[in-house]
Every structure is written in structure tokens, then in C-alpha cells.
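Example (one chain per record):
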Amino acid sequence: MPITARGAIARTPGAPVSIEEFTIDDPGPNEVLVRILASGVCHTDFGVKDGHYGSEGFPFLLGHEGAGVVEAVGPGVQRPQVGDHVILAWRAPCGSCRFCLAGKPNFCSASLNAEKRMRILDGEVLNPVLGIGTFCTHTLVHAGQAIPYPAELPPAQMALIGCGVMTGVGAALYAADVQPGTSVAVFGCGGVGDSVIQGARLAGATTIIAVDVDPRKLEWAKEFGATHLVNARDGDPVEQIKALTGGNGVNYSFEAVGSAKTWEQALFCRDLAGTCVIIGVPGQSEPLQLPMQRFFDLGGIVRVSWYGDCLPTRDFPMLAEWYRQGQLNLDTVVTRTITLEETEDAFAAMNRGETLRSVIMFEA
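Predicted structure:
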């Protein structure tokens, strides 16, 4: 029997979101219906709403960073079960694509998603962001996207594991493989960048340099483990980083902004043979020009990290347990909690740099 839900929908690029009712069909094979408890407001959702990544796919059901409770399961679902508290993952390895068969499921090219069974009241099919859609009371996902977590843990913090926290921590632990006693620079100290800082700290890095243009974000970065702060408005951040590392540069750099300028800074603040990991999502028209000889002479590894190269079934429970143990600070990432109707205000606050994460809360 279809149900009626409410959510934040982006109908046209650049327009404010509308809070609307929509219908969800019964879960099909291998699908689960999830009642959302909490959803983080991520910059990627603003980019989708604003058309930053293109004008195709509207209308979107926004949100991709959610935690909730399974309310119904479709045929063939054995896990999760009705009543389980789950974190939603926007990548669920299929097990049969060329990457999964090669033992690299973190690069799955055919991630599992539910069929598009959500429709606004005029009958138009909704496109859930990253195959999830979490700015809503209920959503429909593939069973492989719903990762159980202990029900006693707070949903606002657990929701953030579903994207920003996992992306940042995984970039440090998996994409870069940060080693103990090394040096790190992180460009962009929002929710993802601060999670990179936490991942670098957990990996044992001893010099962790936070780079931003916002003094407030730099102060937040200290709470997550940054040992040094660089305000890029105070001069060339590459030179400031080299001054903090004996003139050499860092072993690992991370770009969590998505602009050509910070990409170049992240590339050239490294020591010889250092590693640079690109996390920030660029716009479609963002060009990159590099001095090729300088790039070649520096050597090392340059790579893009999607979702922190994670495996949600392995990593979400681990991060939840680290939170329980006090090793992972998620409380400070939750800057404010809001209602669904405040979604547009949350985007504005994010763009003013006032928040790391606003979290939309729903009735438990």
C-alpha cells in the first residue's frame, strides 16, 4: 500500500526548495522503506539544487546523509530487518561489476539503488540525490544501502557518518593511507575537511595543518586535531605550509573545496614524492592549468577519492563504535539541529560559513 511522505524537493536549478508531499510505492525486491530520523545538510545537496553539477535530473528529492528506522522490507530482504536503526550509504557494491570481481568493491561501477518509486502528487517521478534522498520523512533504498547501527546512539551524529564524516576519515585512512609520524595539510575545514583531520589524527599523523580563509573554521579545526592553522588570506598557503615543515612541505595533502586554486595549492604544498588526495567536487566549468615540469619534478601520488574509498558495511559500524568510544568527535560537527521547513535557511547558513553541519531532525 503506497504511503505519503513529505520532503524538500528541488524542482528547477537555482530555485528555493519546496516542502511537498509525495508518494512512495511498496518496497520491491531487495528494497527497504526507511523512516528518516536525521539528515545532515551537505554542500553537495546545495550544488545539486543550484544546478552546479548540471541541469539534468530535476526534480530532485534532496539529501544523502541520513539515519533512520526500517519500516518495511521487500521480497528477498533478510538484512536489515524491520525496526533496525540504519545509516544510509550512497554506494552499495553490486558484487558483480568488473571492480567488484577484481576485489575492489569500493570502486563499484554499478552501485545498488532502489527503483524510482517515489512521485510528487502530479505523478512526476522524483530523482533521489545519490540514490537515497533523505530530506524527507520516509525514503526508499536498496537493502544494501541500509547499514544497521546500535539504536542507542544518537541519529544526528550517525547520519553524518553516511557521507561527510566517512568521506573525510576514509580519505585519510584508505585513499592516502596516512602513516604514523607524518605531516598532513587539509585545504577546506568544513565537515569533510575536519573529518580528514580526525582521520589523520586516528592514523597517527603528528603534524596536521588546517588551511582555510575563515578564522571560525580554523578554530573549529583545532577541536578535531589540527596542530597548526594557516589562514590563506594571510599570504601564500604553500609558503606558510613549507615554513611549518622545515621548508619541505607535507607528506600528504587533501583538497576539500573543489576549486582549481586550492587544487594547485594542495599539489604544490607537498614534499618530494608526497601524496595529494582530491575530495572537493568541482563545478562543470572549473578548468585546471598546471606547470607540467614543476608537477613532474615533485613526483608522488595524485588521486581522487570518492566516498573515502570506503566499504559501508565494514566502515560505518567501525566509525559508530569509534564515536561511542570517544575517539571520533561527531558532536562538534553537529552545529545546529533544524526542522525540514528550515532547509533553505540551512543552505544560507552553510554558505555564510556559520555551520559545519545543520542536521534536519524528524520525530523519533
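Caption: The two ends are 22 Å apart (CA to CA).
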